Amino acid sequence: MVSGKIELEGFSSYKTLENGFFPFVFFNGWRVAVLNYFDIVEKELLYRLERHSQTDEVFVLLNGEAWLIGAGEEAEPKEPKTFRMEQGTVYNIRQNIWHHVILSRDASVLIVENADTGEENSEYAALSKQDIERLKSEIQLVQEGEKTNG
């Protein structure tokens, strides 16, 4: 469900609280989307990275918690590293860089990329069991800690 209508000619607004990926704006070959938590960005289900051959991808954390994973641009991901995203900071993942994002259940991330980004111009690579376990241990979500502690 999309909400937040502006009634002014030439202006639009978009907002959704539903889980998933929602492209809202398309213009001159690019799109703006919102990514809300769903299974692909769940920490416990982490198993692969992706990269896009025809676009950079911009991420902006709007709310909640998120972590980015990056692993260079070699033929296969090498030594994946994690870092916690800060709200309101623009993160640009360059074309052909292996990456993934992990979100807390209340998180929302703004994404800007080429409008035709999809499986046809993206690659996916499975992570090793060792990398998965290491990355999961590095990614600490406050929400997750609250569940464990009470």
Structure, explained:
- This protein has 150 residues and is mainly beta.
- The protein is 12% helix and 38% strand.
- The chain is built from two helices and ten strands, in the order ββββββββββαα.
- It has a five-stranded antiparallel sheet with strand order 1-2-9-4-7, with no helix packed on it.
- A hairpin with a 2-residue loop joins β1 and β2 (30-36).
- The longest helix is centred in the C-terminal third of the chain and has 10 residues, at 129-138.
- The protein is globular.
SSE map:
Layout: E1 20-27, E2 30-36, E3 48-52, E4 57-63, E5 66-70, E6 81-84, E7 90-93, E8 99-103, E9 108-114, E10 122-126, H1 129-138, H2 142-149
Antiparallel strand pairs: 1-2, 2-9, 3-10, 4-7, 4-9, 5-6, 5-8
Q: In total, how many domains does the architecture comprise?
A: 1
- At the fourth level of CATH, the homologous superfamily is Jelly Rolls
CA radius of gyration: 16 Å
What integer is the average pLDDT?
Answer: 91
Structural class: mainly beta
- Per DSSP, the total helix count is 2
Widest beta sheet: strand line-up: 1-2-9-4-7
The outline comes out as globular
What is the number of strand segments? 10
CATH architectural group: Sandwich
Helix and strand sequence: EEEEEEEEEEHH
Tell me the span between the first and last alpha carbons. 32 Å
Helix content: 10-25%
Which blocks of ≥5 consecutive residues have pLDDT under 50? none
CATH class: Mainly Beta
Proportion of strand residues: 35-45%
Short structural description:
This protein has 150 residues and is mostly beta strands.
Record keyword descriptors for this entry.
single chain, 150 residues, mainly beta, Jelly Rolls, five-stranded antiparallel beta sheet, three-stranded antiparallel beta sheet, 2 helices
